[in-house]
Queue: 2 jobs
Job 1
Amino acid sequence: MTITADASFEVLPFTRTCHHIWEDGDHVLIGVSPGNSYFSSERISSLTRWATTRFAQVDFVYADLHVDRMFAAFGYTQEHAEKRATKEIKAVRRRILKGVEESGPQHAEIRVRALSEFQTNPVYQLLHRRVLHFLETDDEFRKGCEEMALHFVGSKLPEGESITDAQLQVCFDYMAAELPFFIDTPSILDVPSSVAAYHVKMPMTDVLFARGGGLRATRNQAYAVVRPEAAEKAQGNPNRASTNPHAHTHTHTAPTEGTVDERRAA
């Protein structure tokens, strides 16, 4: 179920329902992690041009919650962690704004906001509480979050060492702040439907979009892998690794056309 939107990006909706939501073209959410070199200003420009030709509304949301705690949990002093987090968050906002500005004439409504701006949103608050509840009560959901945490920080752990409980908790808090947007962006942002776009398949995708029970994405919430087309894939390096411990550096590849069909949700 591969879609090629234009010459620059390949799109792989995760399920048939995701494909239908993609075709609706109401809204796309592009989450951006501070410290992830994949999201250069040039990449943001390309993503903006791509998104505005296909969707009525576009939201860039960048993570700015628990970033200092992530640095501190993996070896930085508290003072250094706070300074580094502030620097990275400011830098990622600048890159997004520059990329959007340099993308050319806009054909859709574009917003750039920090994750922290939604902490007073009642729907976001409710979804965040649900995520925390399922972390405590749903073994499958928690296992998925643990796998996701290891993808975040596994390469930052000294050889032979396992992630500590304190480090795992910080990862959970960081992810729990983001996950509401993969569950029900339409309700948070008051849009008819939404596609969450990321350049690789996240470990939590199966849990939220493919299983039959527990915490699931709403029916008007989609997920799609949106990755650079053949030029970068030919180089064998579609995902540039981040040097920061909190950045998204998943090793999962995007689902292929066959596996999307096999995993389609009811």
Job 2
Amino acid sequence: MHIWVDADACPAAVKEILFRAATRRQLPLTLVANQVLRTPASPLIRMVQVPGGFDEADKYIVAHVQAGDLVITADIPLAAEVVAKDARALSPRGELYGKDNIRGLLDMRNFMDTLRSTGVETGGPSAFGAADRQVFANRLDGLLQAGPGR
């Protein structure tokens, strides 16, 4: 299993959890972003800088993800593409995207996007906090214990 991170907007606390998990479990971890990010010195952890532009990190991840891999992203369209390739996707808040829920989540995301484009104030997510970090860490641990594709 390879862990991929849509890293441009990924909270620092989530990246730290992922660095520790990759090292502990001896799993390859790749952060993909359009800017250079600092990573620990480890043969397991690498950073790929993609060109600036719309969805460049997403395109890179989709091109390289394999069935059984895990992608960390808050981007629901990216999660849908990952799930279609039989990989798993997990949000930084610990929400697991899967074949059973991705269509509904994508429909809701598109609906909210339509509302925003018409000028409706929809608000945004709450600030990322300690409870979110704990939920993410617990869900990640469960996924890594279960192994690829479970």
